[in-house]
Amino acid sequence: MTLACGIDFGTSNSSIAACNAEGPRLLPIQGGATSVPTALFVSFDDNSMTFGHEALERYFARDPGRYLRAIKSVLGTHLFEQTTQVRLKRYAFGDIIAAFLRFLRTAASEDLGTPPTSVVLGRPAFFVDDDPDADAAAQRQLETAARTAGFERIAFQFEPIAAALDYEQSVNGEEIALVADIGGGTSDFSVVRVSPERARSSDRRQDILGFTGVHIGGTDFDKQLGLATVMPALGLRSRLRRKGLDAPSWYFVDLATWHKIGFLYDPKILAEVRGVVRDSAEPEKVGRLLRVLEQCKGHELLAAIEAAKIELSSAERATLDLDDVADINLEINRAKLEAAVADNLQRIRSRIDNVLQMAGLMPDKVAAVFLTGGATRMPSVRKAIAAAVPNARLVAGDAFGSVATGLALDATRRFGER
Predict the structure, then answer these.
(1) Could you list the pLDDT tens digit for every one of the 418 residues in the chain?
(2) Nearest 5°: phi and psi at 216?
(3) Contacts of 379 (CB under 8 A, 6+ apart)
């Protein structure tokens, strides 16, 4: 019998789960890990691809090649129609995403004994904010990639709904839950009526009281922290010799955006930046930017910023040691991070207010908030959520596994397979 699975193809991390007679379980993908970075490394030597943790290891080992991360973010955007250059070969993003999904499917087959051909893929409430046509295009693009990867029966479920299905396994009675799924690229929210009895129903539409989302996640927090701290040392807002002009800001915005970094290594862009160095009144700063791009260290730079963000979830201060990358060393405190992401947190809070309005509920009717997604570990994120529903208890789920687990439950119900 063909097995059905659920795949959480995330902006930062991905996981896969399946059900057996005992229930859902996350499947090992690499070295026993059930969650891997959504990352690829394409070798300059032979065009071979490695994925997940192995891709990350090859990049930091300075193997010659191109590192790609946050590839989910191109779905539904104009970037999806572009290609990325790796030495003499150009790759379409649809093929890159298909390759990553094939990697997950192959990993699942090693555990299940046969490649799954039925899948429920998670999707955010909105791939693209305020653009229904682009959002629909993103789902079609992901479906095509999944079919190319070998899946035959493909369905979609909203990620916060999938997380609600996982949370429901732990409840003892009926309650109203707010599911907050804040991952690498999106923040999604659902208000769901859950109970052990309702969990046995095959049609849960009447229990979904409201859901919404916004295209804000951990990668946006990386971006804002980078723009506030590191990018000024690389020339952001630095003066040019021509009166009244600053260095073009888009170089720094793209360098702080995971899925855009690779485009900055284009020879034409490098030539432009060399021209900016010559015209700059602060050439030592823009010179740092040029060295980062010439040495293809953009991902290494942003990874250090991400690491500092993660450290600030448990510590008041973090050191950004970028001597080897950009010849700078900075100390950042949690207050700096919270100030950098304040606007994004306000937008998250507004979406929670919106989903409660959709559900026709006052905040005090929410019994629990189920937290999933890596960004929910940030104290400022939890504080923003708690402020929206102050009487609800916060329940931390598996940050990188709850959605996949719920998708596996949904896959079994949809396809009737174990």
Answers:
(1) 458 999 999 999 999 999 988 899 999 999 999 999 999 999 998 889 999 999 999 999 989 999 999 999 999 999 999 888 777 788 999 999 999 999 999 999 999 999 999 999 999 999 999 899 999 999 999 999 999 999 999 999 999 999 999 999 999 999 999 999 999 999 999 999 999 998 887 778 899 999 999 999 999 999 999 999 999 999 999 999 987 899 999 999 999 999 999 999 999 999 999 999 999 999 999 999 999 999 999 999 999 999 999 999 999 999 999 999 988 999 999 999 999 999 999 999 999 999 999 999 999 999 999 999 999 999 999 999 999 999 999 999 999 999 999 999 999 989 975 4
(2) -135, 135
(3) 313, 334
Instruction: Say if strands 153-158 and 4-9 run parallel, antiparallel, or are unpaired.
Output: unpaired
Task: List the one residue out of 347, 416, 337, 415 whose CA is nearest residue 380.
Answer: 337
Q: What angle do CA 107, 373, 299 make, to 5 degrees?
A: 75
Token pair of 415 as six digits: 């396809």
Question: CA 176: distance to chain centroid?
Answer: 27
- Tell me how far CA of residue 104 lies from CA of 16, 97, 188, in angstroms: 7, 11, 24
Tokens matching residue 307: 């690491």
Domains in the chain: boundaries: 173-216+342-397, 219-340
Overall fold of domain 173-216+342-397: Nucleotidyltransferase; domain 5 (3.30.420)
